[in-house]
Amino acid sequence: MKINPPKRPLQFLRWFCREDYLEEIEGDLTEVFKKHSVTSPRKAKWKFCWSVIKYLRPEFISIFKATSPLNPIDMFHHNLLITYRNFLRYKSSFFINLIGLSSGLTAVLLIYLWVHDEMSFDKFHEKNDRLFQVMRHTPDPALGVETHGSNSVLLPSAIENEMPDVEYVLPVRPTPPGIISAEKEKVKASGWFVGKYFFNVFSYELLQGDYNTVLREKYAVVVSEELAFKLFGTIDNCVGKAIIWELDHFGGTHIISGVFKTPKENTSEKFDFLLTHELFLEKNRMDVSWDSNPIFTYLTLKPGVNIDEFNSKLNTFYHSKRETDSEMFIKRYSDQYLYGRYENGIVAGGRIDYVILFSIIALFILIIACINFMNLCTARASRRVKEVGIKKVIGALRRSLIVQHLSESMLMAILSLIVSVLMIITLLPQFNLITGKQMVLTLDWKLISGACIIVIFTGLVAGSYPAFYLSRYKPVDVLKGRQTTSSGELWARNGLVIFQFSVSILLIMAVAIVYTQLNFLQTKNLGYNKANTITFEIQGALSQNLESFLTEIRNIPGVVNASSVRGDITNINSTSWGHTWEGQTKTDEIKFTGATTNYNFIETLGISLKEGRSFSRDFGNEESTVILNEAAVETMQLANPVGKWMNLFGAKREIVGIVNDFHFQSMYEEIKPMFMICNPQYTDKVLVNIQAGAERETIAKLNRILHQFNPGVPFETTFLDDEYNALYVSEQRIAVLSKCFASIGVVISCLGLFGMAAFTAERRTKEIGIRKTLGASEWKIVQMLSRDFTAIVLLAVIVSLPTSYLLARSWLANFAYRIELEWWFFVGVGLVTILIAWFTIGIQTIKTARANPVDCLKRE
After folding, report:
1. Which of 141, 377, 182 is closest to 273 using CA atoms?
2. N or C: which end of the chain has fewer CB within 10 A?
3. Phi, psi of 472 (to 5 degrees)
């Protein structure tokens, strides 16, 4: 039977003042009863209720008019009403909480989108769980175990014929960029040489053509939807049309056999067309051996094959074909993007490092936001303790009070989520620009479930401490004003602030170290002049008239010098070993990096000569000469090297010069032994050094001359310093993201510190009034209120700096060339943090110190 509660306040209180509850607290209420001449609580409920009402503020009375705890719906309405009124009553705390939580949730959800995007790379293929790449571990006496992804062209057919556990095997060889022409259109494109089972292994959709036959003919080509539109303006009726590929000896006429859809999914592989593996073998007969490793090999295993057992069989099979110390194994294709870095034959990370890093940052930011919420709720706790006391007196259980405060925090988390979603919609385009991605906020079940988990976690964690903290008060202590703060509570609050600022200091230090290292990489002397040097591909007819073209452009006003090289000067990675030289004493094989250059290469880049001379036409044909760098001479232990011979690829070459070491790879790598040979016909990239200030005019003149030599070919130039900076584009994006998220963490931490300052000012209002009445200056009050907070932040600095040092040293260890961790880095970050804390505290303490002492003494 439903019990309808009385509607008048006194009847309401009398109805809920249960006799068993009054008996339980009878001893604690003696003083209250004596004040009203009451000898027994059972005989004077009206007077007792009246004494309770006197402690109520007027706005609380309506709460007891509206609800009954006996009705769950009424209880929900009651908690919702209290929450709404508390939001209205404490507007400043409400908005600070809303800003802190919504900012934290925005950062967390943005990181969630980024992490989800990173984790989804290359996983759209139907056979992802059975799709692998064949890899090799090769022992190196100097470098330990090196891991390679390339293999012999003989491997795919051998695996297909002799290993029954394999379903499909696919050879792949990427092509350099070349010119594709059809009808009147010419576009720059790059592709893959692939085996006939390409579409059986990878799940790319064919818009035209048959999956089983598109790659059967040697001169067939399958083009992307995007390339077809560029060449013909449509994808309709493309099959059977001819295109011409202009690229050195690879070039020729090919017939389109199919059109595939440009993948919109996250894929680490980008290509515009597909050619047959048979064509690659025809063009590269010298690479057909077990000692040459020019291709990548992918395979799909049959269902149920054990990977460890297959690796063992694969090794046995490989050693039966070639006597080698290398160990062959397979690695899941979709893991390559995240786990692509090896150290001494062991997976040492890759992009997964940044995924883990930002996941940890997201967790810390969320915890900081929750701590901020707890601190602000605690700061206003003294204003709500009487509400708790009254509710307990009239029979409210502690668990109902806990539910009420958790409901408030959950509602705040939901409101913050709504605000954060609006912020994400606004910020996502800029976030995509920073990350270089095309992420879209789609409300799929993963995002919704993830957001719900985050909201529940945030609401429970953020509201747990205020709920249990406020609900523990005894009603007698509350109504008589005897509530005190224990040392445990004080340590808990201070500990939360210390944790907040420790994490913030870690983020600030991370930003400082990353930016300093990037600045070091961009300003370090590389050993060559990358400024005002432009590069572009040797394409089309230009490869037949390269020397005439270089001679012509050297005569352009504004051109300092010009030459050509094979590959990118910022990432020369063609390696070879087994070479011998005159006076050789070192028995171990040395791995050399080789660069194929043209005349004037050293002069164009401004590389310094240490001994000997550069390549020059004054000495006739230079095909039998070689130039070494300092690292090669040192590793070879070669004294007086100029004039001695070196055996390269079975032919003797005279060492004519030694250049000072220069960085031809990223700063992650140490400078390796290197040789340079002069072979202009095998170069594929032009280097032009131009005068500073004349870039626009000079490039325009270059463009005109290039179109004379290579009509119809698009002229695309890149500055060499841009190519160099592109080596660290991931680090640059991480630096920007770190700066953004560190700023959010610092702001939220400051909000938490502001809450602590408000809490302290609330508790010490009368003390401040008395001190000001006795003559204390506002500055003294500010010092008094700031002293404890300064100690807390200073302790956070002391706690966090050792951790910052260890993390910074671990990250910098990835670079062969890096900054030194100076003491002033850490001192500077500590001082900046303390200044931020002083500014945050000062806003509240100055406001409190300037208050009228009369108003302070009137406060309850």
Report:
1. 182
2. N
3. -85, -15
Q: Which residues contact 74 (CB under 8 A, 6 or more apart)?
A: 66, 67, 68
Rounded-to-integer distance, Cα 740 and Cα 507, Å: 10
Output b/e per residue, 483-513; b: 16+ Cβ within 10 A: beeeeeeeeebbebbbbbbbbbbbbbbbbbb
CB under 8 Å to 781, separation ≥6 — which residues?
A: 768, 771, 772, 845, 848, 849
Q: For residue 657, what is the enclosing H or E element?
A: strand 651-659
Phi then psi for 577, rounded to 5 degrees?
Answer: -150, 180
Burial 118-134 (b: 16+ CB within 10 A, else e): beebbbbbebeebbbbb
Task: List all residues 6 or more positions away from 133 whose beta carbon is below 8 Å from its beta carbon.
Answer: 149, 296, 297, 298, 330, 331, 332, 333, 336
Bridge partner residues of 329 (DSSP): 135
Alpha carbons 219 and 282: distance in angstroms, whole number = 11
Whether 383 and 60 have beta carbons less than 8 Å apart is answered as no
Position 475 scores a pLDDT of 61
Q: How many CA atoms lie within 13 A of 664 on its CB side?
A: 29
* Residue 575, helix vs strand vs coil: strand
> 520 Cβ partners below 8 Å, 6+ apart?
817, 818, 819
**AA identity, residue 856:** C
DSSP letters spanning 508-521: HHHHHHHHHHHHHH
The span from the CA of 569 to the CA of 338, in Å, is 26
Reading the block at residue 814, the tokens are 């990835």
**Partner residues linked to 648 by β-bridges:** 651
For 48-71, the pLDDT digits (tens) are 554 554 444 343 444 444 334 445
Contact, 152 vs 292, CB < 8 A?
yes
Residue written as token pair 């944790």: 499
Count of alpha carbons within 13 Å of 338, Cβ hemisphere only?
20
Q: Which two tokens stand for residue 175?
A: 């092509």
Read off φ and ψ for residue 165, nearest 5 degrees.
Answer: -75, -10
* Gap between the Cα atoms of 301 and 827, Å rounded: 56
Rg of the chain taking only CA atoms, in angstroms: 37
User: With bands split at pLDDT 50, 70 and 90, how would you rate the model's confidence at 781?
Assistant: confident
Question: How do strand 346-349 and strand 341-343 relate by DSSP bridges?
Answer: antiparallel
Residue closest to 811 by CA, chosen among 506, 507, 514, 503: 514
Closest CA to 87 of 455, 423, 380: 380
The CA-CA-CA angle for residues 229, 231, 235, to 5°, reads 40
Yes or no: say if 165 and 174 are a contact pair by the CB < 8 Å rule.
no
Interval 77-125: pLDDT, tens: 666 776 677 677 767 777 777 888 888 888 888 888 899 888 888 888 9
Over residues 361-408, the pLDDT tens digits come to 888 888 888 877 777 766 565 566 666 666 666 666 667 777 777 777
Q: Which residues make beta-bridge pairs with 245?
A: 180, 252
Q: Could you please report the per-residue DSSP string of 812-845?
A: HTT-SS-----HHHHHHHHHHHHHHHHHHHHHHH
